[in-house]
């Protein structure tokens, strides 16, 4: 099946996200028997049509998972697209003889692709707090040997390799696996509900001038290094990144694809490569 979204046909998330969500929600959910039959046809006979039906029937699940990662400031359509890639990988590897439902197996693959997408793009949206955390944030996903929680030996090995403490690796792994919670109280919440918002439980350090100065200098340095890294890109890559992440009215993959006369997947590849170059430059 590959890693493209061709298997989902015209339902690929594009310019009209609301229509896409409505369409995938209208696709019937498979019964246990239907799912098993399709999975067996794919697993034993290599039936591509069975794979397509399995993917289509679980697209609504990808949308649900993508919404839980909306707090990172990344476009929901892009998160859905990455999750669909993970779904197709899961369908390709699904073994119906194991006796579990596809959704239970696929959730790890869907989240893994979304995590990787967030890791690739988070540096542009919000810079991590320390150099060690940035290095860990960008490398932890690729260094994990499986989608399950890491063992103590794996944690210690990664900590030694990246030059951080083992507890920092555990903390980052937990952050990557967690679901976002709103920092402030939801709109319309009463006084009792608002009192439980996380914002009320943080220490206010805004009165410390030295901390404010240090944070301001660090932010200026980060911005300077970001602009320096951007200047090393070719004009097309620079334009793609700027319009995807550095403007208020962010362009979609499909909008840029139409403008440059290439596929949305090609724009995605160019964006990924440019992000990698920037990450290497800024971490140097």
Descriptive account of the structure:
This protein is mainly alpha-helical and 284 residues long. It folds into three domains: 6-116, Four Helix Bundle (Hemerythrin (Met), subunit A) (Up-down Bundle); 128-133 and 144-181, no CATH class; 215-284, Winged helix-like DNA-binding domain superfamily/Winged helix DNA-binding domain (Arc Repressor Mutant, subunit A, Orthogonal Bundle). Helix content is 66%, strand content 0%. It is built from 14 helices and no strands. It has helices at residues 17-26, 32-45, 48-57, 59-67, 76-93, 102-125, 131-143, 152-162, 166-177, 191-194, 209-231, 235-245, 253-260, 264-283. Helix 11 crosses helix 14 (264-283). The radius of gyration is 21 Å and the shape is globular. Mean pLDDT is 77; it is low at 2-15 and 124-128.
């Amino acid at each position: 099946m590959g890693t493209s979204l061709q298997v989902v046909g015209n339902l690929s998330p594009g310019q009209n996200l609301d229509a896409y969500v409505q369409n995938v929600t209208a696709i019937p959910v498979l019964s246990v028997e239907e799912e098993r039959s399709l999975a067996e046809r794919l697993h034993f006979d290599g039936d591509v049509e069975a794979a397509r039906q399995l993917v289509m029937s679980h697209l609504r699940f990808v949308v649900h998972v993508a919404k839980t990662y909306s707090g990172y400031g990344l476009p929901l359509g892009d998160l859905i697209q990455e999750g669909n890639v993970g779904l197709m990988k899961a369908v390709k590897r699904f073994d119906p003889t194991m006796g579990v439902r596809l959704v239970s197996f696929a959730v790890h693959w869907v989240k893994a692709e979304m995590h990787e997408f967030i890791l690739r793009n988070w540096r542009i949206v919000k810079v991590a707090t320390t150099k060690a955390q940035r290095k860990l944030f960008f490398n932890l996903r690729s260094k994990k040997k499986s989608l399950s929680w890491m063992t103590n030996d794996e944690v210690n090995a990664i900590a030694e390799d990246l030059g951080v403490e083992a507890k920092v690796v555990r903390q980052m792994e937990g952050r990557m696996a967690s679901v976002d919670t709103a920092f402030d109280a939801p709109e319309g919440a009463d006084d009792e509900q608002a009192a439980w918002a996380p914002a009320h439980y943080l220490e206010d350090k805004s009165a410390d001038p030295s901390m404010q100065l240090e944070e301001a200098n660090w932010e200026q340095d980060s911005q300077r290094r970001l602009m320096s890294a951007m200047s090393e890109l070719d004009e097309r890559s620079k334009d793609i990144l700027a319009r995807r992440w550095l403007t208020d009215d962010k362009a979609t993959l499909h909008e840029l694809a139409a403008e440059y006369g290439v596929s949305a997947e090609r724009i995605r590849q160019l964006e990924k490569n440019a992000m990698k170059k920037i990450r290497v430059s800024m971490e140097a």
